[in-house]
User: Which sequence fits this backbone?
DNA sequence: ATGCCTGGACCATTCCTCAA
DNA sequence: TTGAGGAATGGTCCAGGCAT
């Protein structure tokens, strides 16, 4: 049995434990946590795993809000991990924001079941073997929010309060790829989504993800996905029934 | 014919790693 | 932290394919 609840703690909770697994996912503000021997702060974009019988306590600031999920069992990817805290994907983070609104609305059993199913589906997609360095969170947000803008490493490093060399190192240690590779990956994924889900032309999509030059975009897209933007569009449009 | 797109060649810039 | 050097990336130009 999986239940989801939205909770906003504002005061020190007493030490306690549960029979079920519990996941705590901040959607605003941060929490000070103590889980077993682990102690630290958890911020938006991270998830805490609390195993059955494990003593824990939270302390949240006034404005902090977070989603709590009680589960009988963890998905395999989480169960296999020894981590207490890991970074969640942007997709799951966005879904949590939707859930926040959903959980405060009217109670509808069907919708609730679908919501939980989707939550579990996204949970299974998490790679919980890493935790993104805090200094990079603003940088990642900035890049993702401004994919159409040019980003140079020097200014991104300043945002993280690191020297360019340190920034390179922290970035690769934390995410396993270089800054440029990360930016290109985000741009390509966004581009693919726009090509498949919108009627924007390849030119418009290229501009939307920061390429002034269509040729450069097409080349990069083909390298990344192994097929051209137009081929990608056609492949998916042939799978989608016509609406008119 | 026209517009849209792809991909090759070339070049400049920026990135990234590594040694000092 | 800095600097060097190779690698990667993006822009420009252009030729050519494809659909309308």
Assistant:
């Amino acid at each position: 049995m999986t239940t989801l609840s939205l909770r906003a703690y504002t005061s020190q909770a007493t030490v306690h434990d549960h029979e079920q697994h519990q996941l705590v996912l901040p959607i605003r503000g941060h929490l000070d946590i103590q889980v077993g021997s682990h102690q630290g702060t958890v911020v938006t974009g991270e998830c805490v795993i609390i195993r059955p019988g494990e003593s824990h306590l939270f302390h949240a600031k006034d404005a902090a809000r977070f989603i709590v999920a009680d589960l009988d069992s963890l998905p395999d990817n989480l169960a296999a991990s020894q981590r207490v805290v890991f970074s969640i994907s942007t997709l799951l983070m966005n879904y949590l924001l939707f859930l926040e609104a959903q959980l405060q609305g009217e109670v509808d059993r069907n919708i609730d079941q679908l919501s939980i199913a989707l939550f579990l589906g996204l949970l299974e997609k998490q790679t919980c073997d890493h935790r993104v360095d805090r200094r990079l969170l603003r940088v990642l947000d900035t890049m993702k929010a401004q994919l159409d803008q040019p980003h140079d490493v020097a200014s991104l490093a300043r945002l993280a309060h690191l020297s360019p060399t340190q920034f390179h190192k922290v970035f690769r240690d934390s995410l396993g790829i270089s800054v440029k590779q990360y930016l290109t990956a985000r741009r390509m994924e966004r581009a693919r989504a726009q090509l498949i889900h919108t009627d924007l032309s390849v030119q418009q999509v290229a501009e939307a993800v920061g390429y002034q030059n269509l040729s450069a975009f097409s080349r990069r897209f083909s390298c990344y996905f192994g097929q051209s933007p137009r081929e990608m569009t056609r492949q998916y449009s042939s799978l989608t029934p016509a609406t008119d």
Chain A is about 45% helix and 20% strand. Residues 3 and 70 of chain A are 5 Å apart (CA to CA).
